[in-house]
Amino acid sequence: MNITELEKCIEKYGNDIYAFCLHLAYSQQEAEELYQDTFLKAMELLHGIEAENNPKSYLLSITIRLWKNQKRKYAWRKRIAGFSSLEEETQEAEPGSGYSLEEEVLKKEQLRQLRQAVKELDYKYRMPVCLYYMEEMPIADIAKILRLPKGTVKSRLYKAREILKKQLSAE
Fold this sequence. Notes:
Order of helices and strands: HHHHHHH
Low-confidence stretches: 81-97
Helix content: over 70%
């Protein structure tokens, strides 16, 4: 891949990658940093990216690896220095047109509860859920990104849905 092809990938998949970064980081500042780091890393690995072999999944895998590294570094620093936890901003849902105020408030509350429940999922369940439902990626691509067998991805999605169902029905 060359720089021109990478620029086309940024134009084509940039919004999706940024939305995924927002979902991982839960704050706009961290998401923007992760987004920039993703494409900086893509520039470093430019010759390893094949334009015809689904570059979006490759970029998402870079994003996931960078996010894991950031979390690992943060956890290490927290253990050593006892830093306070990062502040997390919740993203507001866009109000739907044609809804009454009650329906809109109810929808926002349900969305907030769902986001919170997904956020509380263990990492091994959260990643497949985010990739499958948010990025609408096929299970085969998720398996490739997470370096897991397809059956494991399917079982983690099933288990995550069961956990979310329990959490949301309890609320």
